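Running log. JK asked me to keep both predictions on one page so they can be read side by side. First protein, sequence followed by its tokens:
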Amino acid sequence: MSPLVITLLIVGGIFILIAIAYINHMVENSKLEKARFKADLNDRLRRCADLSESMPGQLMTPQLKLLLCRLQLYFSERLLALDKSAASKTRVDDLRQLIAQGDSIAVRNPPQPVLNEAKAKEVRFQLENLHGQITRCTQDGILQANESKQWLSEIRHMLAQLHIEFFNNLGQQALQQSHPGQARLAFERGVQYLRKQADPSRYQAQLRQLENQLARANAMVLETVQPVADENSELTQGLKELEGDDWKKKNIYD
């Protein structure tokens, strides 16, 4: 065998090894990318499902339930293309049936009173999660820009509803516990929040209600302070009379 043939065989062998390594690298990258894509779909599907099930009933509407079902269907169909399991197919069929109900879709989310700061933060986190999902779906072309704009506006309204309920409940609890000062602070914060809204006219009824509650709390605070003021007045008068007696005594002894 000539040196040229040997050289060609060596070069060819090296080329084949490089090609095999490159192909293996491409296959591994493809598997990794597929796994990442599948994990991302599962995560977004889980987030939408959690929002659909755990959103407080006072904020959930049939339209929002439908939106979340539509997003779940989109992610489920993409997962079905990667995973032909019976569970994936059943989930897709169930979601399609729910979406077919339109605005008649059942909303079974129970109301969750927002009675403390921890609950308010929990619901706010849910709204932020919903905002993030809608924004990303718009970037990915899953939702149209005009529909996304409407939903982002609705989320701001839901956030306002959350604050109204939170401040009102805090104030009512403080009144029940005979803490009118704390109640006044809660109602005052609610009034200030609504007055800062971009569309305050939308919340005129709630604003009047909070203003009435604030006036009531103010009156209770004044009633609490008045006896203290009266006592101070009596004490001041007594001291004046005592000072007067001392002056009279001084004149007598002088």
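And the second, directly underneath as requested:
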Amino acid sequence: MSVPKGVQTSMPHDHDRSLHNLCRKYMHYHVVLKLKDGRSVHGILENAGQREATVYVPERVTEEKQFYGGNGLPIRSYRRFKRMVFPFSQMTSLYPFPYY
């Protein structure tokens, strides 16, 4: 049975299905996403929907404090994670981050 032209089906494409399976395999792992625009995104894979992946992406934050007299104390820095959603249509590949 063929689908009429212009009618969208609820079944994801093979590319989406393979990325969904990879996401399920590497759930809660540190992964690298390769995007179609050439960027690489590192993060912790939180969830995988039928058409997108939710990733915690780290961002570096610096905390600048005013010190009396400018005594040269170092600036505090830490990381926090920002939840981002990446559609499978914008991704080319996904793989676990290699730890050595």
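Observation for JK regarding the second prediction: Strands lie at 30-35, 40-48, 52-63, 76-87, 91-96.
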